[in-house]
Amino acid sequence: MAMQALRESAKTLRIGVIGGDGVGPVVLQAAQRVLEAVPGIPKPSFVPLQAGFEHFQKTGTALPRETVDALKSECTAAMFGAVSSPSHKVAGYSSPIVALRKEMDLYANVRPVKSVEGHDPRVVDMTIVRENTECLYVKQETIEDTPTGRVARATRQISERASTRIGRMAFEIALAAAEVKKQRGGSYGWIGAPTVTIVHKSNVLSVTDGLFRESVRAVAKEYPTVEVNEQIVDSLVYRLFREPEKLSTLVCPNLYGDIVSDGAAALVGSLGLVPSVNVGDSFIMGEPVHGSAPDIADRVPSIANPLASIRSAALMLEFMGYVEPAAKIYDAVDESIRQGKVTPDLGGKLSTEEVTEVVCKQL
Ligand code: NAI
Ligand code: MG
């Protein structure tokens, strides 16, 4: 359903491009080139938009109103590069990506973590579906002095509404993934009945995680062909390292999802490889998982790995209903990895542009 709405908005591809800071703009340029080169989609157009720390330093706002307005009024999707966030508090600054997710109600963060057939020794083929709007990230923290020292508290919000919609998203994704596998005849990676694993800790947090678990289970009734599992988050992490090949679609409250998805990314090598999308009912924004990589951002020519952004663009297309073009891009990326035509973070010698060229040629 959610995905259906996205598919309907996808007849034109007018894509807001928010490069941000550091390597963000250069990796998004790579993604744009691939979107321009891939056959089978309407000719995309791009709307360059501002956000980030550099923009904040120039103007005093990290996420200008014009960016949000342009996304809402003229774009059918967006790509987000990365922004730098100082670790110390800077008055007036808060991360634009968090604000954007809220503004556009992009309530799901979807992160597929997949190994490359014929390259990685370990078979990993899972998708983490992370709730994006609540949990401890409502950021309601207090601190007070008490006779025994300071006590800090944080509110954790879990709502039936948010848990239900993220649950539905996970079931839709499990079904769609199974369908894609069937169509493409892929035998690599996880196969079997579509399965959703609910990640929680309701043995301890029986009220909050209890509600999450119960809400997702209630949605499961709408999806009789999808198997439902559940796993306590700590033992899930154990399984993630021991037998990642057995995991497929995981649905998590915000904090667990944040941790599990970064951990899972480590199973397939460089941060420069892992894509994500932020998804709502009527908008989608692709985003590489990595940050602004300030340590390599000034290199000329750029050596930032563009593959996470290129895969994020493919994932965005897949959610918009362009399954075949997305698959073409995934295959081209996998091929460049198998051939070792990659940037230095993966042991290669190529620049950002050269890797992009290799991918485009294989489309
Ligand atoms: P990072 O992901 O920027 O970098 C971690 C390491 O991975 C670095 O050594 C970097 O060179 C490498 N790396 C990352 N992306 C790469 C790519 N595409 N190609 C090759 N190597 C790559 O994370 P870090 O260093 O913790 O944070 C740097 C800045 O990025 C901080 O200001 C942080 O707040 C921000 N950040 C932003 C995110 C976002 O916008 N969504 C996410 C994570 C961090
Ligand atoms: Mg994270």
From TrEMBL:
* Keywords, sorted A to Z: Magnesium
UniProt GO BP = isocitrate metabolic process; lysine biosynthetic process; tricarboxylic acid cycle
Q: Which domain of life is it from?
A: Eukaryota
The residue ranges of the Isopropylmalate dehydrogenase-like domain are 14-359
GO terms for MF? homoisocitrate dehydrogenase activity; isocitrate dehydrogenase (NAD+) activity; magnesium ion binding; NAD binding
Q: Which Gene3D superfamilies match?
A: Isopropylmalate Dehydrogenase
Pfam families (UniProt xref): Iso_dh
Q: Which is one Gene Ontology cellular component term of this protein?
A: mitochondrion
InterPro entries, from UniProt?
IsoCit/isopropylmalate_DH_CS, IsoPropMal-DH-like_dom
Q: Which family does it belong to?
A: Belongs to the isocitrate and isopropylmalate dehydrogenases family.
Protein name in the entry: BY PROTMAP: gi|472586130|gb|EMS23658.1| homoisocitrate dehydrogenase [Rhodosporidium toruloides NP11] gi|647397786|emb|CDR41047.1| RHTO0S05e11166g1_1 [Rhodosporidium toruloides]
Organism for this UniProt entry: Rhodotorula toruloides (Yeast)
Gene responsible for this protein: FGENESH: predicted gene_12.323
